[in-house]
Amino acid sequence: MAEPLIRMQNIRKSYGRVQALEDASFHVNEREIVGLLGDNGAGKSTLIKVLSGAVPLTSGDIFIRGKKVNLRSTSDAIAHGIETIYQDSALVTQLSIARNLFLGREPIKPPRFLNRMDQEAMNNVARDLLKQVGISKNIPPTTPIGSLSGGERQAVAIARAMHFDSDLIILDEPTNNLGVAETQGVLSFVRNARDSGHSCIFIAHNIHHVFQVVDRIVVMRRGKVVADDIDPKKTSVAEVERIITGMSDKEIRDAIADGKPSH
Amino acid sequence: MENHSLLQRLIARPEFGPFVLLVVEVAVFWGFNHDFLSPQNISNILAFTVELGLIALAMTLLMTSGEFDLSVGSLFGFSPVLMWTLFNSGITSLEVGFLVALLVAALIGLVNGWFVTQLKIPSFLVTLGMLLVVRGTALFVTDGFPQRTWSAEGSWLANILVGDFFIGPFRIYMSLFWFIAAAIALGYVLTQSRTGNWIQAAGGNPNAARARGVNVSGVKIGLFVLSSLMASFAGIISSLRTSAANPNSGTGYELEVIAMVVIGGTALTGGRGTIIGTVLGILILRVMRNGIVLIGVPGLAYNIFIGAIILGMMALHSWLERRHQAGT
User: Fold this and answer.
1) CATH code at A191?
2) Which residue range is the domain that position A185 belongs to?
3) Total domain count for chain A?
4) ipTM score for this prediction
5) What is the pLDDT of residues A164-174, one digit of tens each?
6) N or C: where does chain A have the smaller number of CB atoms within 10 Å of the terminal CB?
7) Which residues of A are less than 8 Å from B1 in CB distance?
């Protein structure tokens, strides 16, 4: 069997005496969109923070394409191709779209010692990317992020992850506070991202959004992964909801093995 | 969005407000007293303006990165005192004294930056403490008396820094060229270089910048060093020009400099800064000080006008900001 893109094994994370993650194991395959579901406090956010380098794990191993990695900071994770897009997306509102896209990786115009950004190239790439992620409105790449809508900001963050060839894009509640059209936009960026070879982890409270895009659903409860192979095409929303809120393990197995909506 | 006319785009620029204010100011003063635009008066305004201006330029970058520096006024007084003390006691030549003074200033900037970025103490408190330390040192080593300054004329260093000459009827000091060079260089850094992008990001959203691998602490420490160096450089220039080294000089300059920067349109909260705006802000305040005296308003009333200008410009900037946020 092919080695998955990301494999997290027996991850434990405790904050003092509180066990946020207990032996959680989780994987993402190449070109796969995984929906990560769970109630508040189930450990989704902690798992993601560990994977994005934001918090250190207490014990356990993370493998990227079979190679063990040590993620000590968010820049470590980015260097390994893991990009996380949080609700309050990590953009500088005062800077333009193009300047945000290239922040920290600005192309330099020769001669190098002048340290001059190649703003023309930045703007051209930004214009193309905006089209790719489906922003149809004609927004110049020099527009500051501050004057964009929430959905457009998500789009810019996703475009950035796609452009810099992140293997894995983690979207933490990307559809919160978005309008209907904007939500559809974000969902279609996620599909585009997979089509162009990226994997995604998609976290959302709205199960319906998750069902629309993901290939596989993983459910967490009380710091454990309780189901990691739910096929959204063969399972109903109601069943997944029951798994999230908690049922006996047998019932879960039955529900998945059944492979059919139960109503 | 793209079919705004040139005029509209010009008005939307943050520098437009300060520019109008400067034009109005000059017109009013000239209306009251035609001597205001005489070559002699313009030369007078420029001589000291550029010295404060050097500090304001560095402060613009520092404030764009979200920090500010209250210790610049004390360095303005301390550095020449240090240079002249070293020279007068025969320890070093004037040139070496100059370099030592700059080196000490850089070190002070480094300490400021280290306290702010590593100990995570707000720059207001750190640089307020440093203000007292530096000013106190200047007063202590001189017993509070001005230093004897040898008339620096003839020294190549003095010639390079503040040598004066006439262009037509205008008396120009070399410091004007240092100011222009610094304005162009720092304006370039802020708007064209990748460092400028990092400075703005550091002030706008430091966590986002850090997550993208930008060395936010490094950027800020560098700017604290730059700010101290420029304050020291400006103090030495001023001291050479006036042949005076008073441990008390520069008192209160930090606030005047910060006022110049915010009047020009740089955000006090960081993330957005403009060198052109700062140059306008410098001119607005210095022209005001000169013009008020020239038209016969008592010089002591100067602060009333400065305060009113600051309040008015802040109201204008916040109004423009809100209109901008609303997306019009």
Assistant:
1) 3.40.50.300
2) 6-258
3) 1
4) 0.78
5) 778 888 888 87
6) N
7) 138-140, 143
